[in-house]
Every structure is written in structure tokens, then in C-alpha cells.
Design brief:
alpha+beta; three-stranded antiparallel sheet; 131 residues
Length: 131
């Protein structure tokens, strides 16, 4: 009986249980943080598409507002948009668009909520000559 109690054959079970617990914890944290990276990627695309529209139109106004509305419907994001210039932009005139949105990183199923502001910038040059 004493020989069975001193046996160390069962020590692997505790190590395995702790390892599985740690792996599940890492997966849970990854599942709550990864959507923020997806949102940042969508925001980068949003900014570059909006910048391209302004380059083609040669102005910041109703055309870019319509494009922003279409992008909002496609991506599901409603960012704050700010332009370095508005109105007509002369050929090779540089401008910058900045879009920002607020995202929450919730750890472990809403245990903690950490708001983060994601910002994307895109720069471009007008392709239209205004007389």
C-alpha cells in the first residue's frame, strides 16, 4: 500500500490539466482581441477608398459624402471623417483624409472592456484640372 502512495505515475495528469487551462485562456484572449485587428484593416480600406474617390473627382464634397455612405453600408463602420482640404482641389493638390472609430476590447466574455480609438490616414493628389 505504501508503495502505491509513493508512486509518481499520476503526476502527468496535473501538468496536462494546467496546460489545457492555459491554452484555453490564451485562445479566449485571442478571440476577444482579433476582431479589433479586423476592424483596423477595414478602416484602412475605408480611408484609402475614400481618398481614391477624392483623387478621381478632384474635390471633397457631395461625391465623397456619397462614397462614404456606400462604404459605411459595405463595411458596417461609422467613422468620424476629417479632411485636410474641402471643396475643389487643383491638379496635383495634396490632401489627407483621416478616419477614426472607437472599438472595445472585451476580455473573457465582457469581463473587462477597454475602449480603443482606431485611426487611419490616407493621402492623395487630385487628378483633375480646374479652370
Amino acid at each position: 500500500m505504501l508503495k502505491l502512495l509513493c508512486s509518481r505515475r499520476g503526476e502527468g495528469y496535473i501538468d496536462t490539466a494546467v496546460m489545457i487551462l492555459c491554452v484555453m485562456l490564451v485562445i479566449a484572449v485571442a478571440m476577444s482581441v482579433l476582431p479589433v485587428f479586423v476592424t483596423k484593416n477595414r478602416l484602412d480600406t475605408y480611408a484609402s477608398e475614400l481618398c481614391r474617390e477624392a483623387e478621381i473627382q478632384g474635390c471633397v464634397g457631395t461625391e465623397t459624402a456619397r462614397r462614404a455612405q456606400v462604404l459605411t453600408e459595405q463595411t458596417g463602420l461609422e467613422p468620424d471623417i476629417s479632411w485636410s482640404k474641402t471643396g475643389k482641389i487643383q491638379l496635383n493638390g495634396e490632401f489627407t483624409v483621416t478616419v477614426s472609430v472607437r472599438a472595445d476590447i472585451g476580455l473573457l466574455g465582457g469581463f473587462g472592456s477597454f475602449p480603443v480609438t482606431l485611426t487611419s490616414k490616407a493621402s492623395g493628389k487630385s487628378e483633375v484640372y480646374w479652370k
